[in-house]
Amino acid sequence: MNQEALRTAILDSLREIAPQADYGRLGDADDIRDSLDLDSMDILNFVIALHARTGIDVPERDYSKLGTMAKALAYLSAPAGGSG
């Protein structure tokens, strides 16, 4: 997937779990969890939704690598979805 397709997948996955959030104000360096007021269950649901859209497995140890849009894009666009 290219960067724009990944960005769309990330945002669509986040919108599933936090539909009321203001995504227009979410910058690439903003902490996703803090900015959208997500708890640990929300993060799990985000990762599940992201996997459904991209097919990329994100092990629990790597959840912090999805902390900002920039980090998530880098992780998901790396070979093997950042793992390895």
Descriptive terms for the model:
single chain, 84 residues, mainly alpha, 4 helices
Q: How does the SSE layout of this entry go?
A:
Blueprint: H1 3-17, H2 32-35, H3 40-54, H4 69-77
Basic shape: globular
User: What's the number of domains?
Assistant: 1
| Distance from first to last alpha carbon | 18 Å
Query: Largest sheet, described in full?
Result: none
What is the arithmetic mean of pLDDT? Answer: 93
Low-confidence stretches: none
Order of helices and strands: HHHH
Structural class: mainly alpha
**Count of discrete alpha- or pi-helical segments spanning 4 or more residues:** 4
Based on CA atoms alone, the radius of gyration comes out at 11 Å
Range of helix content: 40-55%
Count of individual beta strands: 0
Strand content: under 5%
Describe the structure concisely:
With 84 residues, this protein is an all-alpha fold. The chain has helices at 3-17, 32-35, 40-54, 69-77.
Question: Your description of this structure?
Answer:
- There is one protein chain.
- With 84 residues, the chain is an all-alpha fold.
- The chain has one domain (3-20, 33-82).
- It is 51% helix and 0% strand.
- It is built from four helices and no strands.
- The protein has helices spanning 3-17, 32-35, 40-54, 69-77.
- It is globular and about 30 Å long.
- The mean pLDDT is 93.
